[in-house]
C-alpha cells in the first residue's frame, strides 16, 4: 500500500484498510522509539508547520516526529506569517510548496487547509480545523488498539458539544472503522445532519452505527470508550461560556457515567481539559493510566507522536506497496536491515603513528624584541609589557625577567609549563 503524496485533510478521504495501515505503522514506530532504534530515514526533507491556532500537543508531536525521522521543520505561529492577511492562502501555498516537502496546517475553517492543499504542490496535513481533527483520530485509535485490542465493533460515546471537529471526526472515524458511535448531547448540540447522513451510509457498509441521543444513561450503557472535549472551542467569544456550561453540565463525564459503562471501559480526552466542567478531576485522574498513551506527549513521545510519524513517513514510501500483511512484514524487514546497517560499527581506520611527547621543560625566554605591526604571526598593536618591579634584596638586577602580556592572546605565557600530550591509541 502506498500513501505517498496523499493529502491528509479528513478521514473521509481514506479507507478502513488505509487507516489500519497507518495505525499499524504508528505502532511499529512507537515500539522502535521505546527500543532506541533510530528511524531517521527522511534526512534531507523539510516540513513547514503553520499554526493559526496555538497548541501544546499538536506542535510537540509534529516537531518531534519530524526530528525522529531526520527531517527539519519550521514552526510558523499566528504572528509569523502573512497567510490570509497581506498574502492569499494560495500564494502562501505556492511559496512554501517550493521550499518544503510537506506542510501542516492548524487553524480555522476547513476551506483554508483545502486551499493550501490545492495550490501547494506537496502533501498538506490537517493538524486541526473547526470541522475536523484527523491526526488526533490516529492517536486515539492507537490508544484503543493498545488497551482494548480490536477496534472494529467497539462502542464509543462522545459526550458534550458534538457539533465541531472532535464530534465530527469521531463520527467519521467510527463509520469508517465499523465502530458504534453515540453522540450524547442536547439536541441543539447534535452534529450537522448532512454529515450524519454521510456517516450513516458509510457505517451501513462497514458494520458500524451512528446514534444521537440526549439520554446519558442509555448512551453510556456498556460503552467501551467514553470521550469528551472542552465545551468552548478556541476562538469562540467569552459570552458563550455561561449558556454552554448550563446546557452541557448534565453531560459531564463523571463517576456515575463511567460506572454505567463496561468494567473495561476507558475514558479519553484530547486536552486541554477544564476539570469539574466537561469531566471531574476524579475521572480524569483515575482513568489517566488507560489514556496515558494518547496523552503521553505531555511527558514522552508516544502514541500521538508515533501516529504523526506514521503518516508523515508514509508520504515518502515507494509506490509499489501492497495491502497485505506479507508486504508489511517485507517492508518492516527491509527497514530493520537498513537501520541495522546504519547502526553497524564503522571500519577501523588505519593506525596513526603516535605523536611525540612534549617535554615538561620550560620554553626558553621569548626574546624581548617587539613584533612588527602587520606581522603574519601576530595581529593588532605591539604588546605592552608589564612594568618590572624593583629587584628584591639578594637578587641580580640584570637577571632575565619573564614577559607577561595583558592582551596578546596569541602569545604563549612563559611562566606556564607545557603539558604532556598523550599518545593516540590506534
Element layout with pairings:
Elements: H1 16-35, E1 46-51, H2 57-68, E2 72-76, H3 89-97, E3 102-106, H4 110-120, E4 124-128, H5 134-148, E5 155-159, H6 165-177, E6 180-184, H7 193-206, E7 209-213, H8 216-220, E8 225-228, H9 240-248, H10 255-259, E9 266-269, H11 281-286, H12 288-295, H13 303-314, H14 325-343
Parallel strand pairs: 1-2, 1-3, 3-4, 5-6, 5-8, 6-7, 8-9
Fill in the keyword field for this structure:
single chain; 426 residues; alpha/beta; five-stranded parallel sheet
Class derived from helix and strand content: alpha/beta
Report strand %: 5-15%
Number of strands: 9
| Low-pLDDT runs | 287-305, 315-328, 371-380, 401-414
Radius of gyration (CA) equals: 32 Å
Explain the overall architecture.
By secondary structure, this protein is of the alpha/beta class. The chain has 14 helices and nine strands. It has helices at 16-35, 57-68, 89-97, 110-120, 134-148, 165-177, 193-206, 216-220, 240-248, 255-259, 281-286, 288-295, 303-314, 325-343, and strands spanning 46-51, 72-76, 102-106, 124-128, 155-159, 180-184, 209-213, 225-228, 266-269. The strands form two sheets. It has a five-stranded parallel sheet. The longest helix is centred in the first third of the chain and has 20 residues, at 16-35.
Amino acid at each position: 500500500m502506498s500513501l505517498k503524496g496523499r493529502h491528509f485533510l479528513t478521514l473521509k478521504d481514506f479507507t478502513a484498510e488505509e487507516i489500519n495501515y497507518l495505525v499499524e505503522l504508528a505502532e511499529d514506530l512507537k515500539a522502535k522509539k521505546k527500543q532506541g532504534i533510530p528511524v531517521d530515514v527522511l534526512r534531507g526533507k523539510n516540513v513547514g508547520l503553520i499554526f493559526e491556532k496555538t497548541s501544546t500537543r499538536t506542535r510537540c508531536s509534529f516537531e518531534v516526529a519530524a526530528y525522529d525521522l531526520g527531517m527539519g521543520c519550521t514552526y510558523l505561529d499566528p504572528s509569523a506569517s502573512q497567510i490570509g492577511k497581506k498574502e492569499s492562502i494560495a500564494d502562501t501555498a505556492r511559496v512554501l510548496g517550493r521550499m518544503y516537502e510537506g506542510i501542516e496546517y492548524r487553524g480555522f475553517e476547513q476551506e483554508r487547509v483545502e486551499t493550501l492543499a490545492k495550490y501547494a504542490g506537496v502533501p498538506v496535513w490537517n493538524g486541526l480545523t473547526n470541522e475536523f481533527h484527523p491526526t488526533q483520530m490516529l492517536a486515539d485509535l492507537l490508544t484503543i488498539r493498545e488497551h482494548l485490542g480490536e477496534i472494529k465493533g467497539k462502542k464509543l460515546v462522545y459526550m458534550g458539544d458534538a457539533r465541531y471537529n472532535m464530534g465530527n471526526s469521531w463520527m467519521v472515524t467510527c463509520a469508517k472503522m465499523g465502530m458504534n458511535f453515540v453522540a450524547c448531547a442536547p439536541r441543539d448540540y447534535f452534529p450537522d445532519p448532512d454529515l450524519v447522513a454521510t456517516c450513516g451510509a458509510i457505517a451501513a457498509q462497514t458494520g458500524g452505527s451512528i446514534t444521537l441521543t440526549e439520554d446519558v444513561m442509555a448512551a453510556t450503557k456498556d460503552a467501551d470508550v467514553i470521550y469528551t472535549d472542552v465545551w468552548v472551542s478556541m476562538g469562540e467569544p467569552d459570552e458563550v461560556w455561561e449558556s454552554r456550561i448550563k446546557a452541557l453540565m448534565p453531560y459531564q463525564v463523571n463517576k456515575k457515567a463511567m460506572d454505567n459503562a463496561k468494567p473495561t471501559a476507558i475514558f479519553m480526552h484530547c486536552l486541554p481539559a477544564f476539570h469539574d466542567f466537561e469531566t471531574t478531576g476524579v475521572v480524569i485522574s483515575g482513568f489517566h493510566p488507560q489514556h496515558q498513551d494518547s496523552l503521553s506527549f505531555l511527558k514522552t513521545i508516544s502514541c500521538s507522536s508515533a501516529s504523526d510519524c506514521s503518516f508523515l513517513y508514509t508520504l515518502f514510501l515507494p509506490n509499489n506497496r501492497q495491502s497485505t500483511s506479507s508486504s508489511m512484514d517485507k517492508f518492516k524487514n527491509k527497514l530493520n536491515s537498513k537501520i541495522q546497517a546504519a547502526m553497524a560499527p564503522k571500519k577501523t581506520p588505519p593506525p596513526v603513528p603516535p605523536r611525540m611527547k612534549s617535554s615538561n621543560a620550560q620554553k626558553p625566554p621569548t626574546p624581548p624584541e617587539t613584533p612588527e605591526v602587520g606581522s603574519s604571526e601576530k595581529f593588532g598593536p605591539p604588546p605592552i609589557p608589564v612594568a618590572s618591579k624593583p629587584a628584591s634584596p639578594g637578587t641580580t638586577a640584570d637577571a632575565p625577567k619573564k614577559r607577561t602580556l595583558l592582551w596578546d592572546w596569541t602569545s604563549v605565557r612563559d611562566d606556564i609549563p607545557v603539558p604532556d600530550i598523550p599518545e593516540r591509541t590506534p
